[in-house]
Amino acid sequence: MKLLIMGRPGAGKGTQAENIVNYYHIPHISTGDMFRAAIKNKTKLGLEASSYMEKGELVPDSLTTNIVCERLQEPDCKDGFLLDGFPRNISQAEALDKFLSDKGICLDAVLDINVPASILIDRMVGRRVCKNCGATYHVEFNKPQVEGVCDKCGSPLVQRADDTYDTAKNRLDVYDQNTAPLLAYYEAKNLLKTVDGNQDFAKVFADIKNVLSK
Ligand code: ADP
Ligand code: AMP
Prior knowledge:
The chain is an alpha/beta fold. It contains nine helices and eight strands.
């Protein structure tokens, strides 16, 4: 399965990506996770990306497209992958198309997790992530068993630096301006499959499996 997962910031891409990659046995390639790892490791890429990320702006295409194309050439992507958070604008989508067509690779589907913008600020501001394994929780909608502690590895949960009210709001605006046009782009290629993301976690995943089986 060669998939993209799209949706507004906070729509549940990372949450559902975890279910999808376990179910289809494919690697999860999240550009946001790659940038956060680079920032944690204080690499040159991390240094360059952080000034954009802390404002909720897009990291320049020249940095972003390269890391994705390099990652897609690793052996574990041979039989499938789930791209999460990339592409985020038309020029990234065109670069991805060129890369895939040069390699003779076709996407199977582009999933859009559709959630109204009005509820997403609460999702982002209440999101907590494990410092160690990256598992995602929510202070209200998906609480860990012990407050502030990851169920999976016992490490502390933290708030992402860009999950403040103002940055979350800007990320929604950036999505509308840059990323939303990709829905028509992939619809025109007959790849788009939309799922209602404003439902219980398990129901969203059941709908994803259903649309992907068709
Ligand atoms: P994205 O990767 O699209 O930015 P996440 O998967 O990190 O979004 O989810 C954002 C926040 O919303 C997290 O705190 C997550 O626990 C919560 N969340 C995800 N899916 C749902 C859902 N169906 N209902 C309620 N909260 C959800
Ligand atoms: P995410 O983890 O997908 O919510 O992304 C967090 C932040 O990383 C975004 O707000 C951007 O600053 C940056 N980012 C992630 N993916 C991309 C991308 N494809 N293009 C540009 N910036 C990105």
